[in-house]
Amino acid sequence: MTESTSTRSLAGRTLLMSGGSRGIGLAIALRAARDGANVALLAKTDTPHPRLEGTIHTAAAQIEAAGGRALPIVGDVRDENSVSEAVSKAAETFGGIDVVVNNASAIDLSPTPDLAMKKYDLMQDINCRGSFLLAKTALPHLEASGAAHVLTLSPPLNLNPRWAGSFLGYTIAKYGMSLVTLGLAEELKGKGIAANSLWPRTTIATAAVANLLGGEEMVARSRSPEIMADAAHAILTRDPRECTGNFFIDDEVLAEEGITDLSAYGGGQDELELDIFLDGW
User: Fold this and answer.
1) Residue 210 has pLDDT above 70, yes or no
2) Average pLDDT of the chain?
3) DSSP character for 98?
4) CA 252 to CA 182: how far, in whole Å?
5) Burial status of residue 65 (CB atoms within 10 A of its CB: 0-12, 13-18, 19 or more)
6) Residue 265 catalytic?
7) What does the radius of gyration of the chain's CA atoms come to, in whole angstroms?
């Protein structure tokens, strides 16, 4: 962590992540790998994409180079058999599963009249259903872990009508992911399995921001994915019995860890773009 004296570690723990070939997911995986964690990635990008950097195989190579053990699993978080196979492979390869990271997400910010139902269904199936399915399928293994976490990359449940009124389909899909956190935290609180969400204060410099939200100008107004990786690491190394049911914002997590200088992640506050679903600084 950027200024942290924390000695908490993910060494020897196994993370199963949806997506992770690039962006925030890959940054979280690499931060865990530097501790010596095992990282299983369930992702679709088997071959290079013209507009997206990296594949599941290049991500696995980076994880290994960073000091972790990687298991790339080509599959689809929308498919029950695919998810079941990924959970089984991760548990068999590494001897269990300690952490599920619901990272995979589809985005389309079209207003209701312009949103094709095919895109609506895609967002529901990947974001909401995929998060529910992956966590549900991994539960038997999480129950056997003494450090079990489900971390979902989704926003606080902000009922300001501005957000649903701007992009209803995407809001439903992302809030569905957040409901997975809310429900699992309550349902599993007696089993020592934490369920939390993490969301960035600012836009993050990823392919989605570059391709869909405003190009290089928006990227320049965004923080780097490493801020989410460091915040995720802080959450995942906390006691799951004491840290569950939270809708964390990245900079607030780091402040709790004693990290207040965020300049290493890019930009000053006046230059940065506040992320969606957040009403202010």
Assistant:
1) no
2) 93
3) -
4) 19
5) exposed
6) no
7) 17
Q: Does pTM surpass 0.85?
A: yes
Answer for the pair 269, 281: CB distance below 8 angstroms, yes or no. yes
Per-residue pLDDT tens over the stretch 22-49: 999 999 999 999 999 999 999 988 777 7
Q: What is the DSSP letter of 273?
A: P
Mean pLDDT along residues 156-171: 97
Check: CB of residue 103 under 8 Å from CB of residue 15.
no
Contacts of 226 (CB under 8 A, 6+ apart): 2, 27, 31, 264, 265
In 66-193, which residue ranges form alpha helices assigned H by DSSP?
80-94, 117-123, 130-143, 161-166, 168-187
Whether the per-residue pLDDT at 165 is higher than 80: the answer is yes
Confidence of residue 116 (pLDDT cuts 50, 70, 90): very high
Catalytic residue among 120, 170, 175, 265: 170
Q: How far is CA 87 from CA 12, 81, 281, in A?
A: 17, 10, 38
How far apart, in whole angstroms, are the C-alpha atoms of residue 222 and residue 58? Answer: 24
Ranges of H-type helices in the chain: 23-35, 56-65, 80-94, 117-123, 130-143, 161-166, 168-187, 207-212, 215-220, 226-236, 250-256
Q: Is the pLDDT of residue 207 over 80?
A: no
Question: 3-state class of 133 per DSSP?
Answer: helix
